[in-house]
Amino acid sequence: MKYSGVDAWAKDVSEMDMSKERLSIPQYAMALAHVASLRSEDPYRKVGAAALDFDNRVVGTAYNGLAPGFDAPEGFWDDRDKRQKFMLHAEVNLCSLFKRGEVRVIATTTMPCTACMQTLCAYGVEEIYYRDVYKQSDAPEIAKIYGIKLEQVADYPLHASGE
Ligand SMILES: Nc1ccn([C@H]2C[C@H](O)[C@@H](COP(=O)(O)O)O2)c(=O)n1
Known about the structure:
The chain is α/β, with parallel strands linked by helices. The protein is built from 6 helices and 5 strands, in the order ααββααβαβαβ.
């Protein structure tokens, strides 16, 4: 599949033979995560995440941002280093929606950071899909040692791999 934007995606979908073509579960979860990322208020990096249960039903979606109800003071967004410790990651916000053992699949538009990967392990998540690599993360090493599937998914409606 090749998508280069919402218009191209809409055209492709309208031309798809829906009786034969079907999104895979990772693509489905990533498309949901992508839409959630559009709600992020972080101008530097917008991250979305989606959770599916053991029947592939949607448990919820979330995105990175400030604690609910907190209004950023003037200049808050100007300094990435200063605001970093206050940002709630999409994956942590997602974990606030379920209990351990309720979710099998997570898709997140950015690879989980080390702390979020540890949290996802604690919640019993079995498969994690990410779109963008997050360089300062030990997620691949953590996934390997705990036997969690961690795979990149970059080709899905709204987004084409290589873009
Ligand atoms: N897996 C990730 C990586 C980052 N972020 C968020 C936290 C910040 O809001 C923004 C930028 O993060 P940083 O400055 O740490 O790169 O992205 C996130 O929600 N999930």
